[in-house]
Amino acid sequence: MPESDCYRALELEMTNPVPTDGRPTARRRRGRTALIAGLLVTAVTVAGCAGLQKSTDGAGTGGVPTTVRVAYEAPISTLDPLRSGSFADQQVQYLINGQLTKFGAGNDLGQPSLAQRVTESADRLTWTAVLRPDLVFSDGTPITAEDVVASFRRVLDDPAGSKLPEYTDLKNVTSPGPGTVTFTLSRPRASFSGILAQNSATIYPAAGLRQGQAFFAKPVSAGRYQVDSADFVAGHIVLSANPHYPGTPQKVRRVEFTLVPDAATRLAQLQNAEVDYAHNLPTNLIPQMRGAVHQQNSTFPGGMIPLFLNYAGIMGNTNVRQAINLAVDRDQISRAALAGVMQPKYGFFPADQVSGQPKTTRNVAEAKRLLNGTPCEHGCTVKFLLLPDFNWQIPPVTTVVQQNLKDIGIDVQLLTTPISTFAKRTQQGGFDGFVLTPASLIDRPDLVAARQLDPAGSYNTSYHLNVAAPQLHDLVQQLEVAPAAQQPAIAQQAEQVFARELPFIPLTELTFVSGSRLPAEQLSTTLGWYLNLP
Fold it and tell me: DSSP string spanning 510-522?
């Protein structure tokens, strides 16, 4: 059978037994017999497919596979970290990109990587990085201080990079001598060594950056892997181990990313051993993981599923926001929309970063009382943007919120907005809110707050939410400057102000459920972004 016909047969046989929206089907009501039979038929079809390669490449050192295949849900649109927006983009970039400090497993965040040491001056306004000797990029060319300066000059000179809250205080980057780079800040930044571990802080060859965007079709850096091929149209990225990586050599020598937008198809390919890892599966598919396939959860400590609100209209009224906070049923959202995998969230900061975070119990009567004297006293209509193609969590959560708000007389009209037009649509205004899945790259109070909590941060400015909360802004500014030991107390104050202002409504934690055929020691994720491979 030709390979194209084989895949067509597989598509016919692997009919989705449970739709990704979680609604029961006639097939599901008839039980699992048909599903099991279908899987057996599919296995026979796969076995007869000429040229259809299983993910059973020969084991390498210690039983670790030499090749790992990943099925992901959203297009990898770019390998330029200043242009990327999806989790898939970030995961590939963290495999190929080299930074001065480590992202690692979280507990070594900000520790030296390409730099052999990074030090802060006594006045906290200058950071100095000294490069490890004899470093080379994945193409074998030497890494110099000039490459580091060029990489950060690009961030500062690029409109997208210069607006990132991590770099608003970075005034200049220079090289006082061979192998040494100096960063000059306008004010102290407690987590600057961690900022140097982000994808946006990747070190590239200065000569490559002079090529402009053409360079990022197949970029060169100094991460664990290098790019062999990148077909952004077909959604197929192939990486191989970087032969010049300065750390421990990778036992997994090859990683393949394949775009599979449909969640049920990702799981079917995983069950059939066509891939080793299926990323971000809806929770209603968990019962279908069986045999060699097991569930892997990755929770974003600095992430959540919130309802963002636009202050330009009705949501500018504090009592309306407080009423919505009391009307949403977080337990229902967690249970009905997310199968209990993502727990209710009541405040901004992760619970381990602040103390005494109050649990908000749904109270429809009090929510209605708060609406007295507001534009929604006798009922009102609001417009929420609905992203159907970003993360699967968004539509079911939005639907439950819509149902909840109807109980207090707020009619929610949903405006379907593809992710490709979302940014432009928010510029146009005429909307009151949307559910999104923000996540911080780094789990530090100051960096989480800078993006999501600060009214001047990237979420509020990028999505034109018109949030006015000057006290929150001042506290975030204090957080960014304060040494780590002082941050918990400031975060506590910011949490209290957040509860009064409610610029957005936290709903649940953000967790990605993935399926894997490999044990956690051979493939896992840190903070949802960073793929750990031996």
Answer: -EEEEEESS-TTT
Q: How would you label 114-126 residue by residue, b for 16+ Cβ within 10 Å and e otherwise?
A: bbeebebeeeebe
Q: What is the DSSP letter of 250?
A: P
Residue given tokens 């990586």 in the structure block: 245
Which of these, 312, 327, 306, 275, lies nearest to 514 by C-alpha position? 275
- CB burial of 182-201 (b: ≥16 within 10 Å; e: otherwise) equals bbebeebbbbbbbbbbbbbb
Task: Give the pLDDT confidence of 336-346 residue by residue, as tens digits.
Answer: 999 999 999 99
Query: What burial letters (b/e) apply to 137-174, b meaning 16+ CB within 10 Å?
Result: bbeeeebbbebbbbbbbbbeebeebeebbbbbbbeebe
**How far apart are the C-alpha atoms of 51 and 47, rounded to whole Å?**
10
The total number of residues written for the chain in this structure: 534
State how far the Cα of 220 lies from the Cα of 237, in Å rounded to an integer: 14
Average pLDDT over residues 38-63: 46
CB hemisphere CA count around 80 (13 angstroms):
19
* Angstrom distance (rounded) from CA 295 to CA 470: 43
Token code pair at residue 466: 């018109």
Instruction: Write down the mean pLDDT value for the chain.
Output: 86
If you write DSSP's letter for every residue of 428-463 in order, what string do you get?
H----EEE-----SS--HHHHHHHHT-TTSHHHHHT
* Per-residue pLDDT tens digits for 407-418: 999 999 999 999
Report the run of H or E that residue 13 belongs to, with start and end.
helix 3-13
Count of Cβ atoms closer than 10 Å to residue 497 Cβ: 16
Q: Rounded to two decimals, what is the model's pTM?
A: 0.82
Inter-CA distances, 259 with 45, 59, 473, Å:
22, 25, 39
C-alpha to C-alpha distance for 440 and 479, rounded to whole angstroms: 15
The dihedral built from the CA positions of residue 429, 434, 436 and 442, taken in this order, carries a sign that is positive
Q: Which amino acid is at 164?
A: L
- Evaluate whether 348 touches 452 at the Cβ level (below 8 Å): yes
- The region, left, alpha or beta by phi > 0 then psi within -120 to 50, assigned to residue 290 is beta
Residue 105's pLDDT is what?
55
Q: Measured between alpha carbons, how far is 454 from 467 in angstroms, rounded to an integer?
A: 9
